[in-house]
Amino acid sequence: MNEIPKKLQYFIEIAPYLIKLHSSDIAIAIVDREKYVGFFRGKEIDFPVRPGDRVKEETLAYKCMQQNKLLSNKVGREVFGFPYIGIATPIHEDNRVVGAVVFLESIKKQDEFMQMAEVLYTGISELQAASQQISAEAENLSSIGSGLGGLSRQALDHANKSSDITLIIKQIAQQTNLLGLNAAIEAARSGDAGRGFSVVAEEIRKLSTSTKESVENIEKIVEAIKITYGDIAKKTEQIDITSDEQVSAIQEVNAAIQSLFTLAEQLRMKAESLSQKD
């Protein structure tokens, strides 16, 4: 049986104390050039190796001895069910590599932190996309409200112009009625010779009366239309104001979400840096 080099023996003796002094959950493996000569598990972190097991070529301990330098490596939870970082350094005696010491540090908490940061980042990204869509729809609604307001004002202008037209027709009816009255007077003066003219005069007066009644009905309808379009104009103006307020509020929400997005990105990067070693 080969004697364990003194420096490796020192690490075997102090390894339990190093584990207790370390704030993180760590395990320590000590190897000579061929095999594990000591392994000290952490609170949860453990590996399927024991003293006497041969050191495999793919391990960090073997590689650090071969390259004669400190090496580190991050391993995901897919290997042993938990993520960890391994740091291995060669041990020298009489100017030659006699073995290596490997510190295995669990980064389970950092990994969970990283996952939470990723979930937060993804959630805020989706919220940002949804907010941007709502903002675009609100701006579109505001544009539609403005367009409706313009159309309602145009319709009200047309209704007002209709009132001008009915006024002209009313004046024509009054003139026609006056003309019929004058014609009736002249027919009466003409006696029998003016009977035919009297019939025409009567028809003119009936037309005037009928036109006047129609104009009055049109005026009532136009007035009702004006009131309706006036109400529509007020409502669309309120919609326009509300839409503008919504756009402003959504823009403020977007700004807040952007700030959260930036913080989530910083948190994600911080979490990623915590789970790595230089």
From TrEMBL:
Q: Which SUPFAM superfamilies match?
A: Methyl-accepting chemotaxis protein (MCP) signaling domain
What positions does the domain Methyl-accepting transducer occupy? 157-278
- Single GO BP term: signal transduction
List GO terms (cellular component aspect). membrane
Tell me one Pfam family matched here. Answer: MCPsignal
Report keywords, A-Z. Answer: Transducer
InterPro entries attached here?
MCPsignal_dom
Q: What is this protein called?
A: Methyl-accepting chemotaxis protein (MCP) signaling protein
Q: Which organism is it from?
A: Serpentinicella alkaliphila
